[in-house]
UniProtKB/TrEMBL annotation:
A family per Pfam: DUF2007
Protein's name according to its UniProt entry: DUF2007 domain-containing protein
The DUF2007 domain, residue ranges: 4-63
Database matches in InterPro entries: DUF2007, N-reg_PII-like_a/b
Source organism of this protein record: Sphingomonas prati
SUPFAM superfamilies with a match to the protein in the record: GlnB-like (SSF54913)
Length: 72
């Protein structure tokens, strides 16, 4: 299944909070690049929150963000 980056967070904790918020709404999400923080590399790109394309709008609404490429 392909996933789309919904948001980036500076550290794993913030990413986990966002993923937990989505899980409460029944939206599956994955965190990518979370292991880089343990190497001291987290500040280079952050933790990426990924969701299925079908969940982008609902996930963005749940987190109060507008996904990249969405009409304003």
């Amino acid at each position: 299944m392909s996933l789309i980056e919904l948001a980036r967070f500076p550290d794993r904790i913030l990413g986990e909070l966002a993923r937990g918020r989505l899980a409460a709404d029944g939206i599956e999400a994955e965190l990518f690049d979370e292991g880089f923080g343990a190497l001291g590399l987290g500040v280079m790109g952050g933790v990426r929150l990924m969701v299925a394309p079908r969940d982008v709008a609902a996930a963005g609404e749940a987190l109060g963000i507008q996904p990249d490429g969405a009409d304003e």
